[in-house]
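::Amino acid chain::
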Amino acid sequence: MFCIIDNYDSFTYNLVEYMRILDQDVDVFTNDVPLELIDIKSYTGIILSPGPSSPQNSKVTLSIIQKAIHTPLFGVCLGMQAIGYVFGGAIVHAKKIMHGKTDTIEHFGGEMFDCIPQRFTAVRYHSLAVSQYNFPECLQIEAVSSDGEIMALSHKNRFIWGVQFHPESYASEYGMYILKNFIGGSYEYRKSHSTHN
């Protein structure tokens, strides 16, 4: 069972649909529910959805990133920015405002991009970005855009992935593959860390 934190974005239900296509059961909570209502350890993994606000205002999303030590996390758009923010990254205005525009994404061979070509097309929909300057030591950059913005990151010691683009958009290539990689990786991780459940 997976959990999706809905940061009040219309794309959230694309994520729900993709997870169901991939035969996964999903619970959905909005970001304004009390943390106590979400049994973090009971989930195989948690997805942090896109949203219209800044990561500083993403409420329970921030608490989950801090508390989900042994639960895999996958942040999308605002979800990725929240990950960067929690670990000390600067959230800045993007070089270009990208509202529903496709772009070429180049990844560096990380696990989240397994079986995906090094360059592919994805939809960007954001005006904020995680800055490359003073980038948190505990994170690593996994992909960049054609204009050099961070498009994916991961945590070096925890199972935390994030993407700035929208894999759940029908105009993005390989979005289902990225979610599949997160699902498969989450099951493997939980299996090998079963003593923490």
